[in-house]
Amino acid sequence: xxxxxxxxxxxxxxxxxxxxxxxxxxxxxxxxxxxxxxxxxxxxxxxxxxxxxxxxxxxxxxxxxxxxxxxxxxxxxxxxxxxxxxxxxxxxxxxxxxxxxxxxxxxxxxxxxxxxxxxxxxxxxxxxxxxxxxxxxxxxxxxxxxxxxxxxxxxxxxxxxxxxxxxxxxxxxxxxxxxxxxxxxxxxxxxxxxxxxxxxxxxxxxxxxxxxxxxxxxxxxxxxxxxxxxxxxxxxxxxxxxxxxxxxxxxxxxxxxxxxxxxxxxxxxxxxxxxxxxxxxxxxxxxxxxxxxxxxxxxxxxxxxxxxxxxxxxxxxxxxxxxxxxxxxxxxxxxxxxxxxxxxxxxxxxxxxxxxxxxxxxxxxxxxxxxxxxxxxxxxxxxxxxxxx
Length: 389
Ligand code: TYD
Prior knowledge:
Oligomer: single chain
Bound molecules: thymidine-5'-diphosphate
Order of helices and strands: EEEHHEEHEHEHEHEHEEHHEHEEHEHHEE
């Protein structure tokens, strides 16, 4: 049974950056978050229909940071031992992971037509479809069972986890491995990073919940890697039931039990911290405006869609957002309609404070913007607590 603990209010499609004439028809939904007592899954009360989010107009490009390019290259190098292994990626986006693999070894699945075309153009067989049992059956018929099925920041996008895992299980070879990485619930709780919750993230995964749901679908977690990307993620290795389990699985589960991720009360306390975070952010932004400081936002992220809409951050508090993604530039932020411009146009001498929408890249950004920091420019973040850095 789902028990609601958090209401993040009316929210738009987090990655749907819009033009002025689209404001009137902007889609909004109630973003409410719950805890499922049976599986221990943190999940939304109601899910947004996936085609509203993942379509021809999808704007998120995985390859927009050096950090993520390096991350997927390193992972591919660590896996890439046998050229006969067949690999399938679910949610291949702009090819940031798959491009590290030979075109005759890897298959892509990507429902966003614009990105499916990009991996096709790179030479990969690409299925421009959502991950379903019928797609899994079709791939098995056309290409046989797969040794590795990989997904990054994708499985937590899919409402129906039971069907997703069943479709993976039936396509894996007997000793095949399903490797997927998504933001970690433990990190979200530790950092009050409630901005990991938006339409595209109907679930935020604990290892405990994932193992419960995988097990009822013929798979189990055999290893967990804790990663620093996306503000703290877990890479899950799952195999068919009966496979040997690494000690990292119990280590992660017992840490999660210490944090109380298997208890509803933990999430009630988290909701109180979220409200405090909102009050603190608005207080700092109001103070900056009162002092006539110029405040912008760095990185037009999905995460900041949640923050801005929940906290009521409008163009009165933030002048504009800079972002390197061509598909976002010249548009307005979802729901709050703050203009997005290129860093070349907007990240200049006049900026006093930059709210870090992309706080998860703080290291890469601080290195890149050392001149801004040297001349006294400051960043504002809400992670793990609201502060000026
Ligand atoms: P990410 O944090 O992965 O976003 P999401 O919350 O949508 O998952 O995205 C980072 C965004 O920030 C992306 O649109 C690119 C942008 N960006 C910059 O503009 N400059 C930078 O230096 C970096 C690292 C990212």
